[in-house]
Specification:
Blueprint (H helix, E strand, L loop, with lengths): L4 E3 L1 H7 L5 H13 L3 E2 L4 E4 L5 E10 L4 E10 L6 E2 L2 E6 L5 E6 L1 H19 L6 E5 L3 H10 L7 E5 L12 E2 L3 E6 L2 H5 L4 E4 L18 E4 L19 E4 L10 H9 L9 E2 H5 L12 E4 L4 H16 L1
Parallel strand pairs: 1-8, 9-10, 9-13, 10-12, 13-14, 14-17, 15-16, 15-17
Antiparallel strand pairs: 2-4, 3-4, 4-5, 5-6, 5-7, 7-8, 11-12
């Protein structure tokens, strides 16, 4: 029996420059729209005695004749808590495993690429002011992808400890300065695109400060019902997500707003497969547009397929 390829963090780091993650995910979302990919809901499994949990991300990508799963555990331990992620890729033709890979860096890349694909689809063509909330690896990956979608005239990055971060760039491109803020609400004032890239379990911005034409993206973290905006604010926004069939049941602010009677999944304006194929309702520009990503198993499967192809080159 042919053994699956096993790739750790070192190998993934070396292969990532060979992968065009944006193109990989756009192709995957279009496959979803065409019915050539299956995205089951993610599942959360708890360890006994509050020892942690793990999230399972599943996906079937028929175009590449593969299916797979990413397992992302949270292993509690106070200040020494661990979060890891590994993806298993299997063949739809043989039923055998073909790849096992460390997914932490792949998760960072696919998360940032997904946010920016959505921002590109939703933001006005003339958008010129970018604000990123967060300054960790995921935020910096968002910045890297965002530089490819618009000619930004102003870039802002905000986090409480921003002034102690040495890896935040001073400029992008040749002459666009990166302005640092410790106050996220100041950073979003007048911004055309706002990328929320934190691990916060509670709101990090006041959406009432956003302009009517702005676009905000938000990601997930492991905390239960985590949300980067106030759930009650959903009714004030044009709401989009990565996949309408699964995201509302998992995204913290959507679940909380639904339970409170403030919002319903029926109010979604569209998801990424619909946005990328022209089937989604366009932003009204009468209120901000909000895109919520929970991270899809299909994103992990597509990223793993691309890494496998790079490894075989």
């Amino acid at each position: 029996m042919t053994q699956p390829i096993v790739l750790g963090e070192t190998e993934i780091t070396a292969l990532l420059p060979k992968v065009d993650m944006n193109s990989v995910l756009v192709r995957m979302f279009r496959s979803m729209a065409d019915g050539n990919a299956v995205q089951p809901p993610q599942t959360l499994s708890l360890f006994p005695r509050d020892a942690g949990d793990f999230i399972t991300y599943l996906g079937v990508l028929a175009d590449d004749k593969v299916f797979g799963a990413k397992l992302s555990p949270y292993i509690s331990g106070g200040s020494k808590a661990l979060v890891t992620a590994w993806t298993l890729l299997m063949s739809m033709e043989t039923g055998k495993p073909i790849l096992l890979c460390d997914s932490q860096k792949l998760t960072t890349e696919r998360t940032a690429a997904t946010s920016v694909i959505a921002a590109n689809a939703l933001a006005e063509p003339e958008a010129s002011v970018l604000a990123i909330i967060g300054s960790g690896p995921v935020a910096l990956a968002h910045l890297r992808y965002a530089t490819t979608i618009r000619e930004w005239k102003e870039v802002r990055i905000a986090s409480p400890n921003i002034n102690s971060k040495s890896n935040v760039p001073e400029t992008i491109g040749a002459d666009v300065p990166v302005v640092k803020h410790t106050d996220a609400d100041r950073a979003i004032d007048g911004a055309d695109v706002v990328l929320l890239c934190t691990s916060s379990a509670k709101p990090v911005i006041d959406v009432k400060l956003l302009s009517k034409t702005s676009v905000v993206t938000s990601i997930s973290t492991n905390a239960a019902n985590a949300h980067e905006i106030d759930p009650a604010a959903l009714k004030l926004l044009d709401v989009y997500c990565d996949y309408r069939a699964t995201t509302p049941a998992s995204a913290g602010e959507m679940r909380l707003a639904t339970d409170a009677g403030d919002w319903t999944p029926g109010a979604l304006c569209g998801d990424l497969p619909e946005l990328l194929t022209g089937r989604a309702k366009a932003p009204s520009r009468e209120r901000p547009a909000f895109f919520r990503s929970i991270g899809l198993g299909l994103e992990d499967v597509a990223a793993a397929v691309a890494i496998l192809a790079a490894a075989r080159m």
